[in-house]
UniProtKB/TrEMBL annotation:
Residues 122-289 form the C-CAP/cofactor C-like domain. Residues 22-45 have a biased composition (Basic and acidic residues). Tubulin-folding protein; involved in the final step of the tubulin folding pathway. GO terms for cellular component: cytosol. InterPro entries: C-CAP_CF_C-like (IPR017901), CAP/MinC_C (IPR016098), CARP_motif (IPR006599), TBCC (IPR027684), TBCC_N (IPR031925), TBCC_N_sf (IPR038397), Tubulin-bd_cofactor_C_dom (IPR012945). It comes from the Eukaryota. It comes from Channa striata (Snakehead murrel). Supercomplex made of cofactors A to E. Cofactors A and D function by capturing and stabilizing tubulin in a quasi-native conformation. Cofactor E binds to the cofactor D-tubulin complex; interaction with cofactor C then causes the release of tubulin polypeptides that are committed to the native state. GO terms for molecular function: tubulin binding. This is Tubulin-specific chaperone C. Residues 1-47 are annotated as: Disordered. Its main location: cytoplasm.
Amino acid sequence: MDAAAGVNQGNGFAPESGAAKIPERLEKRHKARVEDAERRKEAKESQSVAEEKEEYFFSTFNTELASIEQLLSSCSGAEQAVVMQILEEATAKTVQLQKFVNDSMLFLTQYQLRKTQAALQKLQTSLLRPERRLSPRKIQVDGAAASEQCGFSNMSDEYLTKTSEEIQKRDVLLTHLTNCKVRLFGSPSTLHLKHIDGCEILCGPVSSSVFVDHCTNSTLVFPCQQLRTHNTTDTQVYLHVTSRAIIEDCHGVSFAPFSWSYPNLEDDFSVSGLDMNRNNWSQVDDFNWLAAGTPSPNWTTIPEADRKTHWDP
């Protein structure tokens, strides 16, 4: 009897133990299914969010791009002063569009990023076309007679100066200068610097834009409304600018506040229309640098201890 009971008890325990494990296995399977369903749901939601972000990005990007292109198209046939206002507005919008791309880089694919960067590059080229038309027809960048130029060209190792009466409200061109010191008093309308090597160039307040191209190992000092710098290396810029400075295809460029003083400087500021109290000298936008949250390696600020404050001839 005891033996049979033992057997019965033994037979009873085994099924009871197996039955106890069944709910545990079911619970694990259920939990796994729930977790898998949650993962699929999160993945679907994440994909949906990414698609919404992409849709918003390209809708906004294309709208802003078309707006800037339409703005630039209005330059055709406009007066110079109007063109300058349009360019300033279009440049500011382009900078904002670049920042929008920077902020969206995390969810854009490499193909999408290359596509938007190509569109931005094309837009920047379009910005340059009206700028080139701003140079007066009399002023030839290369080979013009000196009597036709307001400025200097093809000179080396010279001290060069223009008086306020010579340049007031005119377009000034400096090109192909090497190891020269230049002093421009007064208030030019625009200032164009091209192929400058080893020079020190100081200029009074420029009422609109300064355009710099192919400048090396030089020091530039001027106030202006807008600065556009291209293909420039190892150059210091002591700047007063009321909008934002822009560099492109540059490296080794450094900035400090404008620090030149001469008699009648305040009068020239008044003639130029520039705000003496508004200086964005350290607000530089690099059109070649799209890395979000990382400063461009192509420009720096000059440490205070290293800034020049005296500009004797």
